[in-house]
Amino acid sequence: MSRTLRLVLGDQLNPTHSWFKNLDASITYVFVECRGEGSYVPHHIQKLVGILQAMRNFSEQLKNKGHEVYYHKLLDSEEVELADILHTISSKLNATELQFMQPDELRVQQNLEELVNRGHSVSFVSSEHFISTKEEFTITFKGKKSFLMETFYRKLRKRTGILMEGDAPYGGKWNYDSQNRKKLPKNHLIPPPYLPSTNVEEVYADVKKAQLRTIGNLDDPRYYYWPTTTEQALAIFEQWLEHCFQFFGDFQDAMTLSDWALYHSRISFALNVKLLDPLIICQSAEAYYRSNDHIPLNAAEGFIRQILGWREFMRGVYWERMPAFGTENYFGHKAPLPSWFWNGKTKMKCLSHSIGQSLDHAYAHHIQRLMVTGNFMLLAGIDPDEVDLWYLSIYIDAFEWVEITNTRGMSQYADGGWIATKPYVASANYMKKMGDYCHNCFYNEKTKIDSDSCPFNSLYWNFFERHRELLSNNFRLGMVYRTFDKMSSESKVAIRARANYVLDNLEQL
Description:
alpha/beta, Rossmann fold, Serine Threonine Protein Phosphatase 5, Tetratricopeptide repeat, two-stranded antiparallel ribbon, 20 helices, 45% helix
């Protein structure tokens, strides 16, 4: 009997894929725990463990349904590259054809395509996961010099009918972002996040034995709390709908020292390994909103926009602009990343907390990523290559297709404006406005030029002065430059001196 191998990658754990609908004795589903995939960056230990545990769980589910499964564990061979391992497995099983779901990352696709040169018959099918297609994105922005998320978001709203009344947006507006920016009130009680529990001791031991370079913490592998099955992911989502959804709209941008999850759903990892279907999640959120009067529209639209809008948009940008996008460096930034980004040991409380939280939980919400860590990296002129590496390493939901587009585009403006209409930078005033990080910080958030002034303040103005030639014509930055030009010469000199001192002493902050 001719044998077909179907590879299931660690981020392709889609239980509803058409591959799995029918049993076929000539098909073997192959799972590969690959040293190369586990070491191309120093992944967070929780990320590696989560992916491998989810793969093992998914493979067992397929076996229980009667499918033929071949599982290659991390310690089964010393081979590093995915293509090499598949070549060996194919020979061992006398396979005549290799079938793949379309990978989400160009790097992986190129690795798999190498098998054609080794004489294998190779074919690709859709992962059947995303709401949009690469072709739809290309057609939408054909001939454009930049991409606008809002354009794509509205197109997908119309096509799917989500939060629509006929051809008009439900509630009369497309976007309620301006209503998503409230600070948490004093003494506000946030419900603790629902955390499932999985014993991952076996996977954890395998990662350690394989001597893969990892970062971050996993306190007790007997009680791993990220979802590794679709059932766990749905339980997290349903708990979130019931207890957190109503506050998500108001407080999705808020920051606090007292809680690591706030009102965020924490389903991004499950989505990105495809345990959850994004369209079903959006439809479920809409249905819950429409049937519960206490859920405000800014919460429903804000949540759906993150998935139907931003997530789909990022994937489109990735395939439209890679691989060139991965080398973009509009400002020519070359500074090395301070070593404290890997341990959180800085006197800047906002950064210390955001990084420390990321090391503890492999997670930080979008404002911590964009306006704390990303903001500092951009103002400090950190090399985008190092920024990419850090974000891809530290977050459980970071896969290149969604990480690099957010990093090079939204966060670092390294693409020169293909994604964002302006650089997202801010002074300490933003931190104070949106959270409690400035309280009892070593640095003074109110001053710019003193020895204990918050580094964000001088770096902010120095950034715009340093890059005036590239940014002064940006229509969204006119007020910034008008304010800067009204400053006295003495103030500008003092700000420049403080900023240069900060830039020269990043390691000591």
